[in-house]
Structures are given as structure tokens and as C-alpha cells.
Amino acid sequence: GNGYMDGKELQNFIQELQQARKKAGLDLTPEMKAFVGQYGKTTDGKIGIVELAQILPTEENFLLFFRCQQLKSSEDFMQTWRKYDSDHSGFIDSEELKSFLKDLLQKANKQIEDSKLTEYTEIMLRMFDANNDGKLELTELARLLPVQENFLIKFQGVKMCAKEFNKAFEMYDQDGNGYIDENELDALLKDLCEKNKKELDINNLATYKKSIMALSDGGKLYRAELALILCAEEN
Fold first, then answer.
1. Closest CA to 122 of 71, 69, 62, 67
2. In which element (H, E) is residue 123 found?
3. CA–CA separation, 139 vs 129, rounded Å?
4. Lowest mean pLDDT: which of 22-26, 170-174, 192-196?
5. Whole-angstrom Cα distance, residue 93 to residue 121?
6. How far is residue 22's CA from residue 177's CA, in Å, rounded to a whole number?
């Protein structure tokens, strides 16, 4: 939000850029190679957003554009997700995606014309819909968040298998009413932070809790919602 990227944020962006291009089977353009050469090795680099936008192709520009809209928090993002994943499937389809992006931009006080929005929706699917089923999942969409806001990245490392997750859910759903409330989630997260000090920081507990509770239904966090964060997909 300060008009430039620097230090670790810039390095993370470069790493992500290289991975995304590789995944899409694309080489870096000469401009991008020069940019990576100049900024990729050092943490004291700094580049203006406008300057960076001139180097990047449309897809990466789009990610950059979203990162700079200063979504106030991952909580905003999760609330918007909750609204569109109305059937709790863990996915939103291409039709919902357009409205999702529009909502997200409005939260950042950014008005955008419809044709641009359609273009961005298509870009999103092109970038993230790996199996071409016209749907995106929460962790894929979360790449729109700035790295420091993206608590979902942190939780990638602590996901459990379905059996383990169900056991944990039942253990922390102390009154057995089929959902977890804020206090029960607090206990679960404290234990997770204790067990996974490398990935999770107990000082961020309140932020994790607020973001996860944004998925709840009036303070009731059901199994399917919590599974989005803590349950690893089993193929």
C-alpha cells in the first residue's frame, strides 16, 4: 500500500512470479529476467509499483494490482469468500468469481468497469484453475492477498488428514453441538500454535481467530468451514 515493494516482500513476489511462469509453461521475458537478476538475490532492493507494472505481463500485473489495493485484512477476504461459497463446497465457480472480485475491489474502495472485471475473471481462471473445471478453491484465491496478510499460507504446513481433523473437531467441540464457537476455536488454535511454533506465531492468535471466524455462521464454525483451513485434501 506504500507504492513500492521492498525487502522480503519483493523477494517473495519474485519467487512466486518464477513459479507461476514455470507452472504455466512460460519463460521469463527478457525484461523479467533483468528484473529478477537485479532484485532476486538481495533483500535490500526496492522497486516502485508503477515501474514494476511496466515489466510484468498482464497476468502478473493483475496480481500486483490486487496486492496494492490494500484489502484491509484477510478477514475481509474470508467474509467475501463465505458469501460466495454459499453451498460450503470449498469452491466458487466462474460466475461467482466475477462478483467475488467486484466485491473485493469495492471493499478496497476501487470502482472498476465491467469489461475489465470480465478480463480479470478470465485471467484468474487462466492462472489458478489448474484442472480447467471452471472452479477455484479458497487457497488458490488467497494468492490475491499480500504475503504478510495471507495467513492461509501459514496454515498449509499444519493441515491434518481427514481422520485426524475429525478427531480434533470432536475433541474441541466440547459441548458436542456440531460446531465450534469462538472460545473452542481459541483453545484449538492455542494448541496448534504450541505444536507448530515454526509455522504459527502465538502472537498472531487473535488475527488467525478473527480470519477463521469470518467463515462462521453467526459465530458457529461448522466442520466444513474449519476443514477449508485445517484439513488436507486427500486424493
1. 62
2. helix 114-128
3. 12
4. 22-26
5. 10
6. 46
Alpha-carbon dihedral sign for residues 167, 171, 177, 182: negative
> Which residue do the cell numbers 473437531 mark?
169
C-alpha cell at 168: 480434533
Cell of 98: 466475477
- What the block records as the C-alpha cell of 18 is 518464477
Secondary structure class of 160 (helix, strand, coil): strand
CA separation for the pair 52, 67 (Å, rounded): 13
Is residue 39 within 8 A of residue 17, CB to CB? The reply is no
Q: What predicted TM-score, i.e. pTM, was given to this entire model?
A: 0.65
User: Which amino acid is present at 76?
Assistant: D
Distance CA 216, CA 235 (A): 26
CA distances from 150 to 63, 76, 139, 147 (A): 14, 12, 9, 5
